[in-house]
Amino acid sequence: MAHVIRVATAEDLDGVTRTLWLAFCEDPLWSWSFPERAKLEPWWRFLIGSALRHQWVWVLDDYAAASMWIPPGREELAPDEEAQVDGLLQTLIGDHSPQVMHLLERFDSAHPRTEPHYYLSLLGTHPDYRGQGLGMHLLADNLRRIDSEKVPAYLESSNPGNDRRYEGVGFQRVSSFSTPDNAHTVATMWRPAAT
Fold it and tell me: 53: closest CA among 83, 5, 11, 9?
């Protein structure tokens, strides 16, 4: 069966948010960040809603899988959205928000700045479609598009169980950082530009 892959629009915000929220509900890092799993949904909605403006949020079929990329030279959040992060996290997770803010600072510090690249912020498969290779199919399609531009790509792997999958499509682990309590480690991964 041929899969349909398309760029998401504002009308897809609900569907993309639901898929990515459900995909990350059991993720070790994001479960630590949002112990009340329902609170992760508005956080993802905030990030996805911002990223839609870049036209690099992708959907496979009827939200079976979704990916969110930030293209070279673009910011994940607009300045006015960046100013909302602290207040939003306080509303969602209360006393835990300073630790999560510190974690987000570690994400930012680890992010490479020397070479323009595509940044894979989120990739997930709806739980109803797990185990069929759909997330990796979507990723492979995205990487073909990136390779045609001869640009590198970067991601952070929040689940060690996914590292080998990313390595299998050309990403190389370059570093890592941990949560403020050292309970979870995030691998940073780089994929060189196609030649």
Answer: 9
pLDDT tens-digit map of 59-114: 999 999 999 999 999 999 999 999 999 999 999 999 999 999 999 999 999 999 99
Q: Is residue 177 part of a domain?
A: no
Q: Residues 111, 153: contact at Cβ < 8 Å?
A: no
Alpha carbon of 52 to those of 16, 17, 70, 107, 151: distances in Å? 10, 11, 9, 21, 20
Instruction: Look up the CATH number of the domain holding residue 87.
Output: 3.40.630.30
Half-sphere exposure of 78 (CA within 13 A, CB side): 10
- 14 CB-near residues (< 8 Å, 6+ apart): none
Can you tell me which residue has the tokens 């909605």? 45
Residue 74 lies in a domain: yes
User: Is the confidence at residue 159, as pLDDT, over 70?
Assistant: yes
Q: Is 0.90 topped by the overall pTM?
A: yes
Give the integer Cα–Cα distance in Å for 110 and 176. 8
Q: Is residue 195 part of a domain?
A: no
The model's pLDDT over 117-155, given as tens digits with 9 standing for 90+, comes to 999 999 999 999 999 999 999 999 999 999 999 999 999
